[in-house]
């Protein structure tokens, strides 16, 4: 049994930074070795730059293989019979803002649980000097999810792709944002809502903030990176 945030009995504390995810990951910058996910988990949790642990399974002769990787590039959540593990650190709970002093990096997964309330809920990736490098709004007044960002110091074209609108007031929404070299892949409850190309350098993003209009206070119930 691999040690995770949700299974930590008799586990070294460092190994409980792993979060299980059901889906088939696309990975980069990997090292593969013989052994189970537990073996690769030991390697990954000792390396701050490691982001993912993935088991390739075991053969009929009992030999197993696994990988630990520095970059996650995508997740096929429809392949939910597969499991992998994200190596992240919790950086905020019950807050509306988290900081990234060194910016974001390609291959980085951002795991969030957000509290949904109000007319519009805004997830805002903010650059050092203040512009919105990537912003996504859940708009109850329109029944849509809209993303945009500044290009230079003016707003660019909106991305209004909304595969469904099943959100509700008081929801605790699971969010995964995969930061790739090309853009952001934003998943709400394992559904890809945005594949948004970079318009601003990711290493210049210093804060991620959640806010809302209307009643209540939207917040990050948890945020791990």
Automatic annotation (TrEMBL):
InterPro entries: ConA-like_dom_sf (IPR013320), Galectin-like (IPR044156), Galectin_CRD (IPR001079)
Entry protein name: Galectin
Keywords: Lectin
UniProt KW Nucleotidyltransferase keyword: no
Keyword Nucleotide-binding on entry: no
PROSITE patterns in alphabetical order: GALECTIN
Pfam families in the record: Gal-bind_lectin (PF00337)
Superkingdom in the source lineage: Eukaryota
Transmembrane segments: none
Residues covered by the Galectin domain: 96-225
Recorded GO MF terms: carbohydrate binding
